[in-house]
Amino acid sequence: MRFSNELGLPAAWTMGFRRDGREMLVVVVKATYTLPLPGMEPVLADEQVPLVEADRYTGEPGLSAPLHETDFAHGKPACDVLLVGSAYAPRGRATQVEVGLQVGTFAKQFRVLGHRRWHSRAVAAVAGAPEPFDVLPIGYDVAFGGTDRREQAQGRTDAFEANPIGRGYARDTQGADGQLLPNTEALDERVERPDGRYAPQAYGPVGRNWLPRRRLAGTYDQAWMENTAPLWPQDFDEHYFQAAPPDQQIAWPQGGEPVVLRHLTRDGHRGFALPRRRMPILFIPHRGRDLLQEARLDTIVFEPDAERFTLAWRVALPLARSVFDVRETVVGERTQAWHRSRGTPGKTYYKSLADAVAARRGRTGSAR
After folding, report:
1. Whose CA is closest to 184, among 135, 113, 125?
2. pLDDT digits (tens, 9 = 90+) for 318-358
3. Do 311 and 252 share a structural domain?
4. 25 and 130: one domain?
């Protein structure tokens, strides 16, 4: 299959499959925009971030927070809204600050506090006072969670499965003494117990094996191995492909939705609208009619520390037999002249008048 990219944006294809085993041709396109200053609009960045081919982490995979998830998910029933960045204290110094992210009708806020530690008492653990800070990362590795490893030598650990790489969690008061508390917490729920069940507060991707996401992957038991493998189990849920937590999944945006970032940039506030951009994908089969589809915007990643954000569009074409059913996939639109030439046997299409003139003069032109 020929893959033609008319837009110049990072784009690629991969193979996916549905629960019934039918293969799909999945096309992903990504665009990087500058994070606009107040009163300005987003524009395409000079440097386009390439597609992410494998999951990335802040440190060792499995022992640190997911940073960017691969762009090659088979499909996403909703749009992930993600942010990888830091909290910025107003006026350059504070012990705590409230951060906020809004996209359209979606909004999420939480509190960010300076470093603090648990101090064990006779019957409880007490949180120390937060230290002043200027800038603090706000990923899941500083959100509530963690793994109690005091009995690791005996082959036992106790992980907070909603965020096993976080901080602040312990089975009991004595295990918490001297340990760091999380730097983030919900506005309406203070972290007051090391053995509590607090919702981790962050904007980044959640781990594939964390709860509740891993439940969406389905059941891989002996019955699956004997009757269904290598297809998805019957209880597989496509929401498993969503990298964002459930409260950061929104309906596919159409463009124009308002965006607000509060205390997530050095100047404290950014407000703008998502770009309005169509993403047509043309599938040209060996036999039959061409199929033009609109890819859906299903992943938004804000990176305020780098003054940019990325948008990723995806479309999946179910295949009759295999990818060889498709002769060419085109990212972007072709001209009406090209489409007319498709119906005229023996007619050659040139991308420009200059190419046509060059061909008439015997030089190599760019024809299709």
Report:
1. 113
2. 998 777 889 999 999 877 666 666 655 445 555 666 676 67
3. yes
4. no
pLDDT tens for each residue of 240-293: 999 999 999 999 999 999 999 999 999 999 999 999 999 999 999 988 899 999
Is 367 within the bounds of a domain?
Answer: no
pLDDT value of residue 310 = 98
Q: Does the residue 342 lie in any domain?
A: no
Structural domain boundaries, residue 7: 2-85+204-334
- Examine the domain organization and report whether 184 and 282 are in the same domain: no
CB 206 within 8 A of CB 249: no
Quote the number of domains for the chain.
2
Q: What is the DSSP string of 207-267?
A: PTTSTTGGGGG---SHHHHHHTTTSPPTT--GGGG--S-GGGEEPPP-S--EEEEESSSTT
**What's the alpha-carbon Rg for the chain, to the nearest Å?**
25
Answer whether residue 19 is part of any domain: yes
160 secondary structure, DSSP code = -
Shared domain for 81 and 117, answered yes or no, is: no
Same domain as 250, residue 170: no
CA dist 196 and 110 (Å) reads 18
Across 132-158, b (16+ Cβ under 10 Å) vs e yields ebeebbbbbbbbbbbbbeeeeeeeeeb
27 and 156 belong to one structural domain: no
Which DSSP state fits 350? B
Task: Tell me how far apart the alpha carbons of residues 111 and 104 are, in angstroms, rounded to a whole number.
Answer: 21
The pTM score is: 0.90
| Distant-in-sequence, close-in-space partners of 63: CB < 8 Å, separation ≥ 6 | 165
Is 30 within 8 Å of 47 (Cβ atoms)?
A: no
What is the tens place of the pLDDT at every residue in 196-237? 999 999 999 999 999 999 999 999 999 999 999 999 999 999
Judged by DSSP in three states, 24 sits in strand
Is position 179 within any domain?
Answer: yes
Asked if residue 228 and residue 134 are part of one domain, the reply reads no
